[in-house]
């Protein structure tokens, strides 16, 4: 049986790997976007936020006397890279990426809500503040993506009607 602290530390490690996966998904997307500058700009901003989230998670792991799992980080980064590569072959790459990003942001939201519950259980007040910061950034990104899906889809359709390469 695991103690609440052990479950919490495992959750921090999982969140660290999850954020590395997010970076592996976003970096290739940003580098490929041509006709959707608002998406590129928001993804760039979220890359910076995600790097800050990793720093906060490292701080919390250090505080528990632990560190991130290199194996989990690497495995999920590879998975993220493969996911981004898979969409790059689709004619509607930008639309598929927006769907996948929205789903991933909501996964991250759920993960941080779970971690916050565990941080409260182990009475780690500093962690509550740092994890709430991460959660707030994920919620903001999810809300932005939610509001962007329809206009992005319509822009893709409009560009597809012209001779412009609309996929990115």
Explain the overall architecture:
The mean pLDDT is 87. With 168 residues, the chain is mostly helical. The protein starts with a helix and ends in a 7-residue tail after the last helix. The protein has a single domain (4-161), classed as Ferritin (Up-down Bundle). The protein is 84% helix and 0% strand. It has helices spanning 4-32, 37-63, 70-88, 93-121, 125-161.
Highlighted features:
168 residues, mainly alpha, Ferritin, Ferritin-like, Ferritin-like_SF, DUF892_YciF-like
> What is the domain total for the residues?
1
CATH class (first level) name: Mainly Alpha
Question: Architecture, CATH level 2?
Answer: Up-down Bundle
Specify the number of helices: 5
What can be said about the biggest beta sheet? none
Radius of gyration: 17 Å
Flag low-confidence runs: none
Distance between the termini: 48 Å
Number of beta-strand segments:
0
Task: Give a quick rundown of the structure.
InterPro entries: DUF892_YciF-like, Ferritin-like, Ferritin-like_SF, YciF. By secondary structure, the protein is an all-alpha fold.
Task: Produce the secondary structure layout.
Elements: H1 4-32, H2 37-63, H3 70-88, H4 93-121, H5 125-161
Helix pairs in contact: 1-2, 1-3, 1-4, 2-5, 4-5
